[in-house]
Amino acid sequence: MNQKKKNHGTKGQTSFLLLHFLQGALIGLGAVLPGISGGVLSVVFGVYQPVMELLSHPRSAMKRYCRMLIPLILGGGFGFVVVARILGFLLTRYPDPSVCLFVGLIGGMLPSLFREAGKKGRKKSDLLMTVVCFGMILILLTLLQIIQVTIAPSFGWYLFCGFCIALSVIAPGMSFSTLLMPLGLYTPLVDGIGRLDMAVLIPAGIGALLTVLLLARAVTVLMEHHYAMVFHGIVGIVMAATLVIIPFRSFTVSTFSCVNNLLCLAVGIVAALLLDQFNQKIEVPED
């Protein structure tokens, strides 16, 4: 009997570590993929609070969430660097199907995000915040697409890229790609990360570190006092950012293109729903 309990406990620990490595990889992936926010994924997976505590109070966070954060960090680094290389290839060779897959992933995660937003209650003012944020972000991103501003990459602009990356983790829903794509900075950033180019990684890392030091604690306080309103606003931001990146024109190019895009959308939705189910089934072991 004791041996069975021991085996069961070992399996539980392995599942726990594997789950958080996978979640970290997806959060790292979300920090790179167009339209997806690493912060949103950390919220959906229920690890946002430990991540924010790590950014604002690293020493106490490691003592409290050590077994969760270590596989999460390792997975995040793996997802961020490895997926950036793969993403550079996919976006170059298969841009429209790749974006449709990403859109499906986001769409499949919206139910769990909305569930998370209402975890502490839901008021009419919170739903109104969703509508307001959706409208504002949709207008802003549409204008950026119309203007089509392009900027030459430089040390200063890679600092800005680092700021956007950190912001996408600290403020769920703020996908950095939606800011960098219209400026022409997204592709060189992702390509540089995938190639481990120090000319990209160093300024981006500095920008991300400065952003964490300046904003992490302020965002944590905001979440503690206005949880429902902030997260309902995030739902609106995510929906608007997702709508903007859908490659509508590619659906009309040919029947094959339309079917291929729809298939990628479906795969993304199913994968996100299965991941959410798996996330809910795994029991977190007691510290």
UniProtKB/TrEMBL annotation:
<feature type="transmembrane region" description="Helical">
    <location>
        <begin position="226"/>
        <end position="246"/>
    </location>
</feature>
<keyword id="KW-0812">Transmembrane</keyword>
<feature type="transmembrane region" description="Helical">
    <location>
        <begin position="258"/>
        <end position="275"/>
    </location>
</feature>
<feature type="transmembrane region" description="Helical">
    <location>
        <begin position="20"/>
        <end position="48"/>
    </location>
</feature>
<feature type="transmembrane region" description="Helical">
    <location>
        <begin position="127"/>
        <end position="151"/>
    </location>
</feature>
<feature type="transmembrane region" description="Helical">
    <location>
        <begin position="69"/>
        <end position="91"/>
    </location>
</feature>
<protein>
    <submittedName>
        <fullName>DUF368 domain-containing protein</fullName>
    </submittedName>
</protein>
<feature type="transmembrane region" description="Helical">
    <location>
        <begin position="97"/>
        <end position="115"/>
    </location>
</feature>
<feature type="transmembrane region" description="Helical">
    <location>
        <begin position="157"/>
        <end position="186"/>
    </location>
</feature>
<dbReference type="InterPro" id="IPR007163">
    <property type="entry name" value="VCA0040-like"/>
</dbReference>
<feature type="transmembrane region" description="Helical">
    <location>
        <begin position="198"/>
        <end position="220"/>
    </location>
</feature>
<dbReference type="Pfam" id="PF04018">
    <property type="entry name" value="VCA0040-like"/>
</dbReference>
<keyword id="KW-1133">Transmembrane helix</keyword>
<keyword id="KW-0472">Membrane</keyword>
